[in-house]
Specification:
By secondary structure, the protein is mainly alpha-helical. The protein has a domain of 64 residues. The protein has two helices and no strands. The protein is rod-shaped, with a radius of gyration of 21 Å. The two termini are 39 Å apart. The N terminus is likely disordered. Keywords: Biological rhythms, Nucleus. It comes from Digitaria exilis. This is Protein EARLY FLOWERING 4 domain-containing protein. It holds the Pfam family Elf4. It is found in: Nucleus.
Length: 116
Amino acid sequence: MDAGDSFSGMANGGGQVVDGKLIQTFHKSFVQVQSLLDQNRMLITEINQNHESRAPGDLTRNVGLIRELNNNIRRVVGLYADLSASFARNVDDSDGDSSGTLLDGRASGQKRVRPG
């Protein structure tokens, strides 16, 4: 499937199609998140090694590494918040479609029943 095409794999009985642009946005964000998580894994490894060495220079370096780790975590949280908002907007936009059916197959305005 070309990234510009509409993605119909998430279509339900109401025939709703998720826009290819939304899928592209999700993919791009998930790639960024994965890259940050990979960086974090390397930072944590280095922080642990520096901590174990107890060398003053290594411990001082950890201050900067921990700041970088915290900034990466903030960026991941921001990316997930943006993804959530994007998805919510898309679902809200789909509420007004002609089928009146949401992604989960409920009719617009119908409450979700919790199992239990």
